[in-house]
Amino acid sequence: MHFPTKRFTIILLVITGLLSIPLVAMQFTNDVNWSLSDFAIAGFLLFGTGLACEFSLQNIQKTTYRLAICGGLLLLLCLLWLELAVGIFGSPISGN
């Protein structure tokens, strides 16, 4: 599997930027309290979603299918993130 260096680099930079937000916030307030496992899980989710979108962009030709798959992946990421954060579905993995 070959990743274009420009798009792959952008994915890595965006993920690093997103993960730096809570890291910086933890330095200024006690309201944000992430552990190392929180950063690892968030990084895994973001990187996995980014790679899955990149894979679909490389291998699917129709633009509408690309958008649908990437949109579905982002929706799945958001729902899983919300469940881990606040437990909107009340599953055993919820953050409550």
Could you give a short description of this structure?
With 96 residues, the chain is mainly alpha-helical.
Secondary structure tally, helices: 3
Q: Low-confidence parts lasting 5 or more residues at pLDDT below 50?
A: none
Helix content: over 70%
Largest β-sheet summary: none
Mean pLDDT: 90
Q: What proportion of the residues form beta strands (DSSP E)? A: under 5%
Give me the secondary-structure category.
Answer: mainly alpha
Count of DSSP strands: 0
The SSE order reads HHH
Shape: flat
From the alpha-carbon coordinates, what is the Rg to the nearest angstrom?
Answer: 15 Å
- Spatial gap, N to C terminus: 39 Å
Q: Would you kindly provide a written description of the structure presented here, covering whatever features stand out?
A:
The chain has 96 residues and is mainly alpha-helical. Helices cover 75% and strands 0% of the residues. The chain has helices spanning 5-28, 36-59, 63-86. Helix 2 runs antiparallel to helix 3. It is flat and about 45 Å long. The mean pLDDT is 90.
Secondary-structure topology with pairs:
Elements: H1 5-28, H2 36-59, H3 63-86
Helix pairs in contact: 1-2, 2-3
Q: What attributes characterize this protein structure?
A:
mainly alpha; 96 residues; flat
